[in-house]
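ENTRY TYPE: protein
WANTED: fold as tokens:
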Amino acid sequence: MTTEQILAFTVIGIMMAVFIWDRIRYDIVACCALIAAVAVGIVPVDEAFSGFSDDIVIIVGSALVVSAAVARSGIVDIAIKKFFPNLTSVRAQLALLMIVVAVMSAFIKNIGALAIMMPVAFQFSKRTGVSPSKYLMPMAFSALLGGLMTQIGTSPNIVVSQLRADLTGAPFTMFDFTPVGGILTLVGVTFLMFFHWLVPSRTRQNTSLEEAVEIANYTSEATVPPQSNMAGKALAELLKLGDGEVIATAVLRGATRMSPFPDLNLRENDTVILEGRSSAIDRVVSNAKLQLSGKPLKGRGQQVEDLISIEAIISRESPLSGLSARELALSYTRGVNLLAVSRRGQRLSERLRDLTLMAGDVIVLQGNRNALPGVMQDFALLPLAQREVMLGTKRKAFIPLVILAAAMISTALGWAPVAVAFFAAALGMAVFRAIPLTDVYKAVDGPILIMLAALIPVSDTLRTSGASELIADWLGSIASGLPPYAALAMILVTAMAVTPFLNNAATVLVMGPIAASFATALQFRPEAFLMAVAIGAGCDFLTPVGHQCNTLVMGPGGYRFSDYPRLGFPLSVLIVLVSVPTLLWIWPVS
């Protein structure tokens, strides 16, 4: 063993130990490992930051933006309410998410399937009050399992298929992977369904100030217009859209004020005074197609474009204090609408236009993105954590889905690499305003991307130092005296172990020839051994860095590095125990 190989094993070993220790944030650990690798000379200085240009960083960052845009579109709410209105059990919700992700991952890029379904998981989380961490890691693992079922499901399957063609003249076909992959997916998803409790409840580790500040008691009013689907339905049906986070304090019918009984049938032009979080009120308003208070905003006789809604606090110096919206006539004088008001410790039941505003009230104003800052300055309003809210903003429901579908089709047909397709999709979300530019950079999880970029050159030291070939030699000497099932298990376990450091395609390129030569030397058929390499390379359940799907959910799920083996280790053991006899049955070695 050379000095360079010893240093590579040492740096990576210490890094993994600190990751598991879990006292220092993961991006700092990765950066320290990178600097250490550069300092001892196993990572060249001119390649220290090569990870920042790696496709994996681009794919993960772009997928986070795409997922945020899909969530913002509101299409997820519509789909859940339409197809799964009564799905309230966490296990049933998780089963649905995992099955859909696994099936989609068999035919499209698994990170794309995961990005599509992540917003659904967040909505289920809000509905049940369960942490998103309970959903996201099992979904990521299901995406990895689903990719095992077809030749195009994951990169290792494609590489292994080519290796078989080089050895036998015939590659694996599209569905040669399905018998073994289908069994493993069924077993794995079943395990995850019953043992998801191994995942700890986490909150997002890098929660921003704007995410932490949440007003729970906004009062807003919305009218039932002719195009609404709520006319003739009970008030309880309307409030059901808020998943228990919205209440009605009154219903106004002309000059009559009525108590908000759940069985009260709504009529066209009724006005409902709602109370709840702005995001929950927005779900009610958008799904029921209600009309918020305020007038259509026009400038120079034309509809005002690029409308946003923003929260602000009325300061003591504000001229709004002591006046009502009717007296201010904001929509006519300043081109903004008052959409909601929150007053600490009080439940408001007055109409917004009649409510006398006070210093300390938190209000939601709607207006043009460029004009609102001037209005807030003139009225001495303090923006709340510099954030925008969804209430009153126009949704572009199908644009994100069209953009995402275009990206997935492009990758499936080979028109564009995955990194390019997802980067173009993220750019399209911004260009077509499916997500505001400010939210684009909030969606990109900086610590995760820094960790990935720092780890890539560190992990590559196993290859550049020749340590991977050293491992291969050790395997060959050990496997020569083992029976077929033990040799198959050893190849599978080794592929699982090295995948976090070589990435899955590189693992196949290193381990595939070893498995094939071992099978040839012992006069075994190579298919089972090649399949074992593909399964091991496609099943990294132990770390957040071995596959993009694991990395994608790390930030949104608030996971720590040590959380992955809590669920991933027993799943990995199960996969090994099931894979070996299944492979020997379906692909006999003799």
